[in-house]
Amino acid sequence: MPPQDTQQPLLEQEETAYDSSEKVVVVGIDEHGGDVEAPPFSWRKLWLFTGPGFLMSIAFLDPGNLEGDLQSGAIAGYSLLWLLMWATAMGLIIQLLSARLGVATGRHLAELCREEYPAWARIVLWLMTEVALIGSDIQEVIGSAIAIRILSNGVVPLWAGVVVTAFDCFIFLFLENYGVRKLEAFFAVLIGVMALSFAWMFGEAKPDGVDVLVGILVPKLSSRTIQQAVGVVGCIIMPHNVFLHSALVQSRQVDPSKKGRVQEAINYYSIESTIALAVSFIINIFVTTVFAKGFYGTEIANSIGLVNAGQYLQEKYGGGLFPILYIWGIGLLAAGQSSTITGTYAGQFIMGGFLNLRLKKWIRALITRSFAIIPTMIVALIFDTSEESLDVLNEWLNVLQSVQIPFALIPLLCLVSKEQIMGSFKIGSVLKIISWLVAALVIVINGYLLLEFFSSEVNGAVFATVVCVLTAAYVAFILYLISRAITFTPWQSLTRSKTVAGAEN
Question: For the chain, which terminal residue's Cβ has fewer other Cβ atoms within 10 angstroms, N or C?
Answer without folding.
Answer: N
